[in-house]
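Give me structure tokens for this 144-residue protein.
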Amino acid sequence: MKLTIFNPSGKPIYEDYFESLIRMSETTALRNLSSQLILELVYGGTGTYHLRMLDYQNGKILKLLDGEDGLFNAAAEVRPQFRSGTSPAKEPFQIMLTEGVGLASPAPKVTRVYRYTNGAYHYSGKFPQQKLDDYMEKLLKESE
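Here you go.
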């Protein structure tokens, strides 16, 4: 497949080739007046997916998350930050990408977190997804 993005005058300003498009969505992750384009892509038969986030600024397409940083194979989520000390309405969304051998495998699933700084998304750290889900389960039981 080929994706081409054109500027308002019809000139191509971005092009990418990939095997298949899993999902395409629009978000206002940067919490400003512009929208960003999120692409979940397959470039080849490796079982690994790629998340790309693109933004249109000053007549150009900027890659806010690209390359090896966008790899996942279990889950991808672009969502607000609800950490203490942040304002979800103002803070740029975070990207959470989960990898493991596959959903059916008992191998651990690890989620990498990317946060927006200096004009792009950068790696902030990782955590075992099972620990987060176990903690969520505990909180759900406490709320009954």
